[in-house]
Please model this.
Amino acid sequence: QVQLVESGGGLVQAGDSLGLSCAASTRTFLGYNMGWFRQAPGKEREFVAAISRNGGSTNYADSVKGRFTISRDNAKNTVYLRMNSLKPDDTAVYYCAASPVYGLRLSLKEYPYWGQGTQVTVSS
Model:
């Protein structure tokens, strides 16, 4: 069982940067690949980024590639999402998720553990 708590959301202007954090309550954080997803109003939840257990592999949605960076600190049981050059289209609730399945996972269905989400709003 993993409990996840996101923080760091807020209201920013287009072009600004913002960092999200997700703290995991588990003794086996290294046993989980971690992902960030987002859900905009009226849209389905979508994949944003994922990182492997040891942080050696990452994957990004095309819409955020080159602007967002996912990282993790296994000593702190925390995963991060650094968002640069934010656009109004990035406005969404951002969710952290954990998957015990081996290998990077991009599908929501393979993440059984989710945080409560944090709102990111980008004004134009």
About this structure: The radius of gyration is 13 Å.
